[in-house]
Amino acid sequence: MPKRGKQPPPTNQPPPTGGVDLNNVSRKLTQLLRHRLHENGLSDVLRPDGYVPLERVLQLPQFASRHVTVEQVREIVRTNDKQRMALTEDGDKIYIRANQGHTADGIDADALLQRVSQDDAASLAGGRGLALHGTYHSAWPAIVSSGGLKTMQRHHIHLAVGLPGDAGVISGMRASSEVLIWVDVARAVQAGIRFYTSANHVVLTPGRDGDGLLPLDFFARVVDAKTGREWRDDGWQHGSPPSGSEAAWSSSSIAVAAPARLPAVMDAASSSAVASSSAAHAGDRSNAGDLP
């Protein structure tokens, strides 16, 4: 019987990394494509839909010095659990972009994203018209004080179509979020506030025209993610949460309620917390590499 020669590796194996830390490259790509396109000399090749030539990106020192290849970038984009980036080809050119989370100028939301119609909005959360914004207790006083959610440094406020782990939820909020804000997207769209969805199924809004605010009036429910307590009547409700509270706040079962009454003026103790929490509120929007 003839000897078997050495078998080639299966073709579905990922390309060799060549000693390159692909996680590090992924973070650098996300930072570049969301926030630092102009600082890296890509203004002249930036398309309205956020795409830039991959060839130009790989010529930048932070990638050229690591000898990052097209195949490695393809692998990064393919395996990213949040699907933060996308590749497209036009003729013999390959382009790359971030799917959402931008602060860089020169990107047209209507070219980058899909506009949410009234019917689209009404179909969210199993026909309840809701989407979910996750934040932290440290940021909550500043959200209340400012009158709602703001875009901060980013172009859009980010929302998810459900809780992390729900079917179809890829990105839109951190799994570590402590405060869950269910937003009545259907009512907000009806009121004239623009909403979009990204290629990785994040719900996005620039907020109200003029000030970039998504007002408290459109908060359907606010829930402590750990305890299931609701924010109502100017404070967190005491006592035990309802039985099965975790399921009660899933996107498939939440019922639309009248907006929680949120204070227009905070008490002295809460007001003193705003200064320290404002930075956290801003950080919720501007953390480049690891935001949903």
Automatic annotation (TrEMBL):
<dbReference type="Pfam" id="PF01885">
    <property type="entry name" value="PTS_2-RNA"/>
</dbReference>
<comment type="function">
    <text>Catalyzes the last step of tRNA splicing, the transfer of the splice junction 2'-phosphate from ligated tRNA to NAD to produce ADP-ribose 1''-2'' cyclic phosphate.</text>
</comment>
<feature type="compositionally biased region" description="Pro residues">
    <location>
        <begin position="7"/>
        <end position="17"/>
    </location>
</feature>
<keyword id="KW-0808">Transferase</keyword>
<feature type="region of interest" description="Disordered">
    <location>
        <begin position="1"/>
        <end position="22"/>
    </location>
</feature>
<dbReference type="InterPro" id="IPR042080">
    <property type="entry name" value="RNA_2'-PTrans_N"/>
</dbReference>
<feature type="compositionally biased region" description="Low complexity">
    <location>
        <begin position="240"/>
        <end position="250"/>
    </location>
</feature>
<protein>
    <recommendedName>
        <fullName>2'-phosphotransferase</fullName>
        <ecNumber>2.7.1.160</ecNumber>
    </recommendedName>
</protein>
<dbReference type="GO" id="GO:0000215">
    <property type="term" value="F:tRNA 2'-phosphotransferase activity"/>
</dbReference>
<feature type="region of interest" description="Disordered">
    <location>
        <begin position="231"/>
        <end position="250"/>
    </location>
</feature>
<dbReference type="InterPro" id="IPR042081">
    <property type="entry name" value="RNA_2'-PTrans_C"/>
</dbReference>
<dbReference type="GO" id="GO:0006388">
    <property type="term" value="P:tRNA splicing, via endonucleolytic cleavage and ligation"/>
</dbReference>
<comment type="similarity">
    <text>Belongs to the KptA/TPT1 family.</text>
</comment>
<keyword id="KW-0520">NAD</keyword>
<dbReference type="InterPro" id="IPR002745">
    <property type="entry name" value="Ptrans_KptA/Tpt1"/>
</dbReference>
